[in-house]
Design brief:
This protein is of the alpha+beta class. It is 18% helix and 36% strand. Helix 2 runs antiparallel to helix 5. The chain starts with 8 loop residues before the first helix and ends in a 5-residue tail after the last strand.
Amino acid sequence: MSENPPPTAEELTADLVDLLDVEEIDTDLYRGRRSRGGVGRVFGGQVIAQALQAAQRSTDAPKTAHSLHAYFMRAGDENYPIIYRVVRDFEGRSFATRRVIAMQRGAPILNMAASFQVPEQGFHHQDAMPDVPPPESLESEAQIRARESVNIDEKFRRQLTRPRPIEIRPAYPRKWFEPTPTAPIQHSWFRVVAPIGDDQAMHRAILSYASDMSLLGTCMLPHGVNWTTPGFQTASLDHAIWLHEDFRADDWLLYATDSPWAGHARGMNRGQIFTRDGRLVATVAQEGLIRQRTPRA
């Protein structure tokens, strides 16, 4: 029996947009569907993006999201949808704040606070974008994974190489299955694989989704470990995003990350997201669990 053909870029993108397009089930109460083909634990970026969408749905234009701060409490289960309850803490003329509680089976899995502002003019400065090769000259992470995973277990290989709606092209590729210690710095281009229209709320949601990709791995680089290391446990603990400027998530964005510190089974990671023309459009920070378990005797 022949296998089904792989999904097109347009199908992958439409599915991501549908995943992040939360359903309003009552006033300030929303439902986010589960990811098709998801296995086990819900991807943290999905919960962040759906929570942001719920907060955005509760806030009228022209106020737009400029920051969010989220804490992960429990791993989400791919077998169930996620319910998002929005609390309208403040509604001012210039700013508004929202709290979002993400729940599964009666238990909170994430708390998020988000702030919104009416656009206005002001002083401006920013960091310069790092000098990296353009995305057209780089191999995609999907190509690298396919090449390096030839000799691993077929089930794990299928999961690792399945088509994804976000394309990533690392400027300086790392080894997936034989990690060696390197400086805690990563530069990667990313974009959603097909156009998504002009809804800036969706572009912000997709950036929030993608911001959880590759970030936590930055603090692992100096130690020569990653998710394939036996007995190694990782999890996002908190995640913050500051949204500075409008952008398009279906154009190439550069994610420049670094890790200034790790200790006590935690690693700190920072990220800056730039457009191709050098505009700094978002800043990200995350602390995560990085724990090497000792085998029991």
